[in-house]
Every structure is written in structure tokens, then in C-alpha cells.
Amino acid sequence: MAVGGASSADLEQVATDKSFVLSAPDFRTAASMGDQLRPYIVGVAQRTIVVQNEFTEAYEVGKRDIIFLLDSTMGATIIGAMREFIRRFVEHIPIGPDEVQIGVAQFSNAGRLEMDLNSHRSREDVTAALGRIKPRPGKTVNIGAALDFVRTNMFRADKGSRISQGVPQLLLVMTSKKSSDNVDTPAQALQQMGVLTLAAGTKAADEAELKQIAFDDTLVFMMNDFRHLLRNPKLIVSPLSTLSGVVVTEGPELEITTVHTPKVVRDIVFLVDGSSYVGNQNLPYVRQFITNIVNKLDVQPNRVQIGLMQFSERPKIEFYLNTHQNNQDVLNNLAFHVDDFQNMPELAEQIMQPLITVVGDTAVTDIIEETGSALKFMKETILSESNGSRAPQNVPQFLIVLTGGRSRDNVKESAVALKTGGVVPFGVGVKDADLRQIQEISHNPSFAFKVKEFSELDSVQQKLNTYVSLPKEQLQVVLDKELCS
Fold first, then answer.
1. Could you give the dihedral angle defined by the CA atoms of residues 39, 44, 49 and 51, in that order, rounded to the nearest 10 degrees?
2. With bands split at pLDDT 50, 70 and 90, how would you rate the model's confidence at 26?
3. Phi, psi angle pair for 262, to nearest 5°
4. How confident is the model at residue 365 (pLDDT cuts 50, 70, 90)?
5. 321, 382 contact by CB (below 8 A)
6. What DSSP string runs through 375-403?
7. Residue 27 backbone phi and psi in degrees, to 5
8. 12: left (phi > 0), else alpha (psi -120 to 50), else beta?
9. Residue 208 burial (C-beta neighbours within 10 Å; 0-12, 13-18, 19+)
């Protein structure tokens, strides 16, 4: 802990991790920082925060073919770090012609083969071959050409690819630059072939371009330096280990690609401001916000469950976590509040009155909002096991709070009780919402979002989808990282 004029930079050299360095202006303030320090101590003791510099466990990895496509222009240090990342991964998975096969290629202006999938049949041979990979100088990269190179030269039966046997085919692209050529068409060709592509970038890499390359946006990883992978490998190792896909061909013309992504299991509750802070005119934006999130999830009893509650002066449960069994049922119960108004304006106020006032006996013009009470009520109702919560089965519990104004009661105590109970809250504030309250509600301040208008909610939705759709292993890495930051 750096107190007064003590150098934080010096203490960062001493601490196990930079995020473990706290600062205080004086000793009186430092004495009151126990609550800030305790989560780190408890987290390390209980291993919810894991600080490690290497792989420490074997990974359960099914049969698969994995090709690493490396930007060769990044210099000896970074290429060395990527070699080491792959080597550590290989050390903890079963390698062989009937297990996991590893291929490697580099690229700058064009692709260059380092090892085919069937070049090396043992862990020792793969490790030795990795040591022979050297960087290649270059100022520009053609990722599109490199993708085509891998598709036409490496994902082939004579080169070891087992795609015709239904074995998952994975490609991890790692680059520090924006491509000088088009990547869209080569990426689509790989996807149509049944290859599941992941993309990782640093420095001048273009995130939008990497999203074109990757099979899904959640499989794009941006970082400051690839050397960080040596300390935090699970972010990429988890999807490499769990993603699977199979190509099924029916007839001479019809080719169907079926992809099995990591099983995402979680309970998600939306807590929506029902006061006139939101107003009738903004309900379509609220409904679309929820719809866009739900559409990216697989709602069913053994996967994702959705609950919805509104609040103002008093809370009102719209549906529990176990009320609806599929996406369409959830969306149908959101649509009721908005779609009917467009064609039946004479019923608008009749339906809107109870929706906006929550309980139907509060005037629409009254702005009474008690978010703290709503959080407490929700913890005791929607997030109870009897109403569908799977927290006892260690299913991640998410809460998304959407509000357009300031709560007149205290939110911090109720929010702390939720977080202590293992719930991960996100706070979304619009217009007159109090940013401090939104941050107090949220898992941490970086999980709090504020926009000026309800029409801007789509920008928040994209960020939330990234978090709520992460496989459990990746989610834990992110939560641990955010807790430490």
C-alpha cells in the first residue's frame, strides 16, 4: 500500500501483481481501506483470484485439429512468447493422430508452412518443432492471403486434417497489424468449409477486421501484448479446448455446417425502471434492448433462463426465471407491452398505465423510484431456488439493472448483499440516472454504463452480450481480472 508520497511504481515491482497495489493520501485513510483490501485477500485465499505465470493443470480436450497462424513480423521477443504459449498448451493436452493434432504457419505478405497437422505425432516432436520457428521481417501483412494459404494447403486430408471424419477444425490467427488485403471472402470460405476461426490481436490490429475473421465476435481477443497470454492463458485456451464443429454433406449440392459452441448456462434477470423516468415513448427502446440480448442466447431449462421485474415505488414481477422455456416465449411476453400499441392506439393508455406505474395505482406523473428496495425484493423472490435460480448448482447469476432516474433510497447495501451472494450485477443508466448509484449497483465500476438517451441503448447491449455469452471458464477469467483492476 502506497501512503502519501510513497512510489506506487516501486511497490508494483514488489507486489505479486500490479493490481494488488493500493494508494492512500495518508495513514488515516489507509486505516479505513480494509473493505477495499479484503476482497483481494479473500479472493487469493479461496482461489477465486488465481495469480499464476504458467499452466498448472491438464485440460480435458477432445479429438481436434488446431492450426496456429502467426504474424511473423512481430519480432523475436513476441514470436518467442507465442511459441512458449503454444508449447505450454501442448504440454497439457493429449497429442497424437487419434487425439489432438497441431499445425503452425506464419505469414507476412504470404503464408509460410512451419508444420502440418500430421508432421509430428508426439508431444516431444511438436515441442522440438516449435523451437525451430523463427520470426520473419516485414512491415505489412496480408491476412486474407494467409487464410487462403491455410485453407488450401493445410486443412487437407493428405496434410492430416480429419474434417471428413467430423473432427473439429480450429484456426487461431494472431496478429499485431491490420491486413493490407481483404479478409472477408477468405474468412467466409473457411467458415463454409466448417473451420472454427478465432482471432487475437495487439497494437495496430483492427478489431473490426478480426471480427470478420472470427466465427463469432466472442472469439475475438484484443490485448496489449501477447506476452500476457503466458500469465492469463485460459481466455484463449478455454475455447480452443471446448469449441467443436462438424460438417455434414447431404446430396451433391447441399452442405450443412453444424457448430457446437461451448455450453453457456446461466440465469439472467432484467430489473427495469417502471417509473415515468422512462416514459411511454421510450418503452420500444427498452424492449428492443432486452430483445437484442435475448436473441443472442439459447433460452431453455438446461441452458439460459430469463427473468423480468419492473420497479418504481414498489416492485412487480413480470415473470420468473423458470416461467418461460424458450426464446420465443420470452420475446412474446416482451412484445405484449409495445407491439399492440402500434395498431390499437385507443388501448395504449389503458395498457401503459399499469406498465409504467408497476402496480396500477400510482399516477404516471409521479416519479418515485426505490431501486434499493427492488434489489432486495428481487434477491428474495426471482433469485430464489424455488423460482428457478440455479445458484446452488453453481450456475452464474447475472442481473441487468436498467434505470432512467435516481433512486430515492440507498442502493449500496442491497447491491453488496447480491454480490456477496454470487450475483454479477450490471448497471445501465439513462438520462437522469445517478452514475454513482449505477456504479454501486454494478459488480465493479467497469460493469456500469451510462448513456444520454434510451435510443443509445444498443451500444450498451453489444457490450453486455459479450459478457453474458462467455463460456464459464472465460467468464471467470474476466470477472477475476475486473475484480483486480
1. 140
2. confident
3. -55, 140
4. very low
5. yes
6. HHHHHHTTTSGGGT--GGGT--EEEEEEE
7. -70, -25
8. alpha
9. exposed
Residue 479 is placed in which grid cell? 470477472
* Cα separation, 379 vs 89, whole angstroms: 41
Instruction: Using alpha carbons, select from 161, 155, 166 the residue that is nearest to residue 111.
Output: 155
How does 316-349 read in b/e, with b if 16+ C-beta sit within 10 Å?
bbbbbbbbbeebeebbeebeebbeebeeeeeeee
* 76-91 vs 123-130: helix crossing angle, rounded to 10: 170
The residue assigned the cell 412474446 is 332
Find the range with the poorest average confidence among 118-127, 156-165, 289-298. 289-298
Distance of CA 27 to CAs 2, 32, 33, 244, Å? 10, 9, 10, 54
For 417, the enclosing helix (H) or strand (E) is: helix 412-420
Residue 67 grid coordinates: 492450426
Residue pair 143/80 in contact by the 8 Å Cβ criterion: no
- 227, 396, 435 from 68: Cα distances, Å: 16, 31, 43
- Rounded-to-integer distance, Cα 72 and Cα 60, Å: 30
Mean pLDDT, the chain, whole residue set: 79
Helix then strand count (H, E) for the chain reads 18, 16
| 242 — pLDDT class (breaks 50, 70, 90) | confident
3-state secondary structure of 424: strand
| Phi and psi angles of residue 315, each rounded to the nearest 5 degrees, phi first | -80, 155
DSSP, collapsed to helix, strand or coil, labels residue 248 as strand
Q: How far is CA 274 from the centre of its chain?
A: 28
242 touches 372 (CB < 8 A)? no
Strand order in the sheet with 304-311: 315-319, 304-311, 266-273, 397-403, 423-430, 448-451
Contact 236, 221 (CB under 8 A): yes
Q: What number of residues does the chain have?
A: 485
Instruction: List the one residue out of 297, 356, 379 whose CA is nearest residue 330.
Output: 297
Per-residue H/E/C for 170-223: EEEEEECCCECCCCHHHHHHHHHHCEEEEEEECCCCCHHHHHHHCCCHHHEEEC
Can you list the alpha helix ranges (DSSP code H) found in 15-156? Answer: 27-31, 34-45, 76-91, 123-130, 143-153
Cβ within 8 Å of residue 454, ≥6 positions away: 278, 282, 285, 286, 404, 430, 431
Distance CA 90, CA 92 (A): 5
**Residue 111, CA distances (Å) to 101, 199, 219, 350 in order:** 20, 16, 22, 65
Grid cell 480429419 is found at 162
Distance CA 71, CA 226 (A): 11
Residue type for position 466: T
Residue 100 — left, alpha, or beta (φ > 0 → left; ψ -120 to 50 → alpha)? Answer: beta
Q: Cα–Cα distance between 85 and 56 in angstroms, integer?
A: 13
